[in-house]
Amino acid sequence: MNLDIDLGNSLGKVSGILRRPPDAWVGLVLAHGAGAGMRHRFMEAISEVLARHGVATLRYQFPYLEAGGRRPDPPGVLQATVRAAAAEARRLMVDLPLVAGGKSLGGRMTSNAMARQPLEGVSGLVFLGFPLHPSKQPGVARSDHLAEIEHPMLFLQGTRDTLAELELMRTVCRRLGTKATLHVVEGADHSFEVLKRSGRTGTDVLEELARTTAGWCRALQPGSM
Fold this sequence. Notes:
This protein is α/β, with parallel strands linked by helices. It has one domain (2-220): Alpha/Beta hydrolase fold, catalytic domain (Rossmann fold). Helices cover 34% and strands 22% of the residues. It has helices at 41-52, 63-66, 75-92, 105-116, 166-176, 202-220; strands spanning 2-6, 13-19, 26-31, 55-60, 98-103, 122-128, 153-158, 180-185. The protein has an eight-stranded mixed beta sheet, sandwiched between helices.
């Protein structure tokens, strides 16, 4: 289902895509990464595999890609877009519990929005490759705001991710305590691609990501523990 999301505050509208399987039991507000929009093959594929696990997704564009640009919008605009998308998800999936997050930049902007003011109706955050630091510039400053978030967080991280050294990611998650769950995807890079010699395929990785996300979401639901 294609839709328009009104950002308000004279920011205009952005496009969105709702994919809701008949057996949906949870909704995920899913933001794209910095260099590719909601129709990127990874975003399409992960939404399809999540749907097989009963996870509905609302994908959406950030304004700069909607306008055909390359440079990401200022953080305030990105976070306003996250909030508008979450509000639209509440309207469209009023009968489902919601989580939010995204790929790389999209996940980080979702967490920044949540740290500033909790996203209404969102019970947890899912990060598909949290961009902890720029490539070859290891550090944890980008994670400082996560301490302000009270909701559970799932980090899906590849062992070959050059934007998140695994030991640094483990340190961040230890500091967050029980709020953080780290799932390591063996052999995957920041795009969740794996080498042929690993013996795994992209389909295998997508299934692992979807299965892990669905299982984590199940655990958030009342009475599931």
